[in-house]
Write a structure and sequence with these properties.
seven-stranded antiparallel β-sheet; alpha+beta; Jelly Rolls; 3 helices; six-stranded antiparallel β-sheet
């Protein structure tokens, strides 16, 4: 067989192997869960530090932020008029992007870099379902943003300019907000909707409730059967009530 043919076959085999390796890596890729334990939304909790937020979520060409939330809304201070339904920050990178919610509206505010100035672009989003667990997914690919609630894409928008890169942490919650959150997942790439759904199903039960919020079943201690003191008839043995011949050995009587 000519040497040229062997080289071509080798290149084809290498290309096929590389393809399947890359496909496997993408199929098994998982984001990083930076908040595996449930926490309350009544404070702006830092879930990802400034450096990694900048590198993984803002400086990269694409990124994903997922979070299971159960927003009750409300104002802990009692100073706000409940009829106003003010937007409160739920997912926030200060100076870069903020996902805000109220009982009747929601939006994603993105700070963009326009030549010579910095401005904000608002992406309208349908109201977030309240008083139930919902997985929110903010997916970015360059200037394009997609927002998902559970298994549905509820908003898609392409910014006029690129988002601003800034060094601030990722926070979830606000001092005026009531509710809970868990399983905040970040990834330095844009997850596909099927990947988001896979994460949601992996982290929740059949009712859509995050597994991390379900109390673990504590099994009762198994009682001792006292078999040490039982000697089978016909077989010589020394019960535990008889002290060992070696006085240096510890022994216990039932």
């Amino acid at each position: 067989m000519p040497k040229t043919v062997l080289i071509i076959i080798g290149i084809l085999v290498l290309a096929i192997i590389t393809y399947f390796v890359i496909r496997y890596m993408y199929a098994t890729a998982r984001g990083k869960d930076v908040a595996p334990d449930m926490f309350q939304l009544n404070e702006a909790k830092q879930v990802y530090d400034s450096y990694n937020t900048q590198i993984d979520l803002l400086k990269s060409s694409s990124a994903s932020i997922l979070a299971f939330v159960n927003v009750q809304y409300g104002d802990r201070t009692g100073n706000a008029n409940p009829k106003v339904n003010a937007l409160l920050p739920l997912i926030n990178i200060d100076g870069a992007l903020t996902f805000e919610v109220s009982p009747d509206s929601a939006q994603l505010r993105v700070v963009r870099v326009k030549p010579g100035e910095t401005s904000t672009e608002v992406i309208p989003v349908p109201p977030l379902p309240m008083q139930k667990w919902v997985m929110i997914a903010i997916l970015r690919d360059g200037r394009r943003f997609d927002i998902m609630y559970n298994d549905q894409i509820v908003a898609s928008h392409r910014l006029e300019y690129y988002p601003k890169v800034i060094s601030n942490p990722l926070r979830v919650g606000d001092k005026k907000m009531l509710g809970s959150a868990v399983n905040v997942i970040v990834a330095p790439y844009r997850m596909t909707p099927s990947e988001v759904i896979r994460e949601m199903r992996h982290l929740s039960d059949t009712t859509g409730t995050p597994v991390a919020t379900t109390p673990r079943l504590q099994l009762p201690p198994i009682p001792s059967l006292g078999l040490r003191s039982v000697c089978i008839p016909g077989i010589p043995c020394n019960g535990v009530t008889q002290a060992p011949s070696d006085q240096l050995k510890a022994w216990y009587s039932p």
